[in-house]
Every structure is written in C-alpha cells, then in structure tokens.
Amino acid sequence: MNLTRNPEIQKSLLVHLALAILAVTAGWLHDKYTALCLLVFSVCYILAHYIFTVSRYRKLKQLSLELDAMLHSNTPIDFQRYREGELSILESELSKMTLRLNEQATALANDKQFLADSMADISHQIRSPLTSSNLILTLLMEQELSADRRRQLLRELTQLLSRIDWLVESLLKISKLDAGTIIFKRLPISVPELIKQASEPLLIPMELREQTLEIIPPQLQDQLTDVPQFFGDFTWSTEAILNILKNCMEHTPARGNIQVSFSQNAIYTQIVIEDNGAGFDKEDLPHLFERFYKGKNASAHSVGIGLALSRMIVTQQNGTLKAENRPEGGARFVIKFYTNNH
To answer: Which of 51, 60, 135, 143 has a 20 to 30 A CA-CA distance from 32?
Structure first.
C-alpha cells in the first residue's frame, strides 16, 4: 500500500514536516542539544503517525473488500474487528446499511418467488376455463347438434366466461391493493344497508339452492340507539362482504341456512357471517386467507382469492377478519371495523 499517493497523506506529511522544521529551528536558536531533541521527537512522532495511519487505512481497505464481497456473494462481515475511534462510527452505519440491504434482498427474493408462484396459479386458473370454453365452441360447431344440447352448452359457456371475468376482475383488484393505488373513502356506512347491498347478487343463486339468508338485527337497548355504522368505503366494503357470503353459499348444502348478525360498541363495529355447512378443516384454518389457497372442503370451481381479497379490503380500513368453526357445526366469519379518529 503506497499511501504517499494519497492527497490527504501528502498534505498531512507536509504539515508535519513544516512543523518539525520550525521546532528544530527554534531549538537551534536556543542550543544544539534542544534542537537535536526536537529533531528526534519530530521524527518519532511523524513515524508513529504514519504507522498508525497505515494501519487504519489497511483496515479501511479490508473493510472495503469485505463490503464488496458481501454485496456480490452475500458474505457476512465481522464488524467486531473494527471497534476503534472513528471506525466504530463507520461500523455502526455500515451495520445498519448491511442489515437493510440484507432485508431488501430477502424481500426481493420472496417477492420474486411469490410472483412466480402467483403467475403459475393465475395461468392455471385461467387456462382451465379457457380450455373448456374452446371445447364447448368445438362442440357447438357440429351440424347435427340438438337444440337442447346446444342450449346446455351455451349455458356452460356463459358460466365459464363469467368465471373468467370474475377471476380477472378480482386479480386486478388485488394488484391495485398491492400497488397502493386504491384510495379508500372515509364515509359513514350503515351496516344494514351494506349487508343488503352485498347480498343482493346472491339472492337468486341462494334461492336456486333452496338456501335461506337470515339477517339478525342487533338488540337495541333503547330507541335512541343509532343504527350500527362505521367509517369506510361502501363499494369496497360491499366487495368484501359479498365474497364472504359467496364463500358461505358455496359451502352450505341445499336447504342450508346463512346468518348475518351485527353489533356496535365504543371500540368497534362487528359483523358476523355464519353458515351450517361442513366448516373448516383444522389444517386449513391458518391458510384460509392466503391467495390461491384451496381447502379440503373447497368446491371444484373455487379459485382461492375471494377471501384473500376480503381480508385485504378489511385490513386496509382499520379492521380485522378472522374465520373459525362454529361449536354446533359450520363456518363463522367475524369482521371488526375499529373506531378511530376520522
């Protein structure tokens, strides 16, 4: 290591030499012995300063090489060796930087893996109905196809196209929520009106399944009690409730029952949605709200993004959503929108 090429070292050496010359000159004016002592002292001081500087720069160079190795090959750094003077300050800042870089690298790797898995799941979910649609279109082109068979195939094709449309719309909503481009409104939402709006698209499918939807109003203690409400975005909240109701409908047998109850206190507004279906498998409960997760009791047409979308909507409106099994059988979803300053 040739430190004499370093501009800072050159300036430092020139300053020290100038001071040494001044000191020796002043000592010579006094007597030769004093000048000799000052000369020896100056030479020793300059050599000691240079030795310590060389040692410090060697450690800095080693630290630089280790940082380069860490950035390119994820090699850890032993910062304990650099605990001295200004190097300890540098060590502290570098520790923070390397920790942040490692966290970001891990997050990027996880995001990359999640994106790859999500793309595989999305392509699979879309490919299946597209393949079936192409098959139906091929059958519809047959000349000798009966009218009844043609109507049946058209109904199946309509269902498949509706499924693809819902899937694409849901994926777009999730991507917008992930990107943070959705700005939720903060307006008062009447819970009864929210439940009514969310359940309307499912009334006919429930009737065809001979299922009943029971909305249980809260027991008002006095006539002055306000209708339960919370502050949020009505459209997105409707989407969240609709997906949960749809999940209950798909997992409730014919002539089954779905109940919706709600209440409010000083801390939160609560909505409880229950059914008398098969409930959840214990192994599925921790994963119900993961994207593309399909439980053991999931229907054949289940995609596994409805509940994930619902939780994202609820949590981004200062709420919580959890699922559990009812003691008497069936599933229960508990939604809480917490009160805060608005």
So the answer is: 51
* CA–CA distance, 309 with 121 (Å, rounded to integer): 16
Sign of CA dihedral 5, 9, 15, 20: negative
b/e map 230-256, b = 16+ CB within 10 Å: bbbbeebbbbbbbbbbbbbbbbbeeeb
pLDDT of residue 222: 42
Sign of CA dihedral 328, 329, 330, 336: positive
User: DSSP string of 292-319?
Assistant: T---TT--TT--S-HHHHHHHHHHTTTE
Strands 187-190 and 331-338, by their bridges, are: unpaired
Residue from 62, 82, 79, 80 nearest 1 by CA: 62
Contacts 24+ apart (CB under 8 A), 288-295: 288/323, 289/321, 289/323, 291/118, 291/121, 291/174, 292/117, 292/118, 292/121, 292/125
- Alpha carbon 253 to its chain centroid, in Å, reads 35
The DSSP-derived string for 86-140 is: HHHHHHHHHHHHHHHHHHHHHHHHHHHHHHHHHHHHHHHHHHHHHHHHHHHHHHH
Kindly tell me if the per-residue pLDDT of 95 is higher than 80. no
In whole angstroms, give the CA distance from residue 307 to residue 286: 13
The H or E element that residue 176 is part of is helix 147-179
C-alpha span between 323 and 36 (Å, rounded)? 89
Q: Are 1 and 57 in contact, with CB atoms under 8 Å apart?
A: yes
Cβ contact 20:39 at 8 Å:
yes
Distance CA 160, CA 91 (A): 60
Are 321 and 333 within 8 A, CB to CB?
A: yes
- Taking alpha carbons only, the member of 170, 229, 239 closest to residue 198 is 239
The pLDDT tens digits of the residues spanning 163-197 come to 788 888 888 888 888 778 889 999 999 999 999 99
Six token digits for residue 99: 């920790």
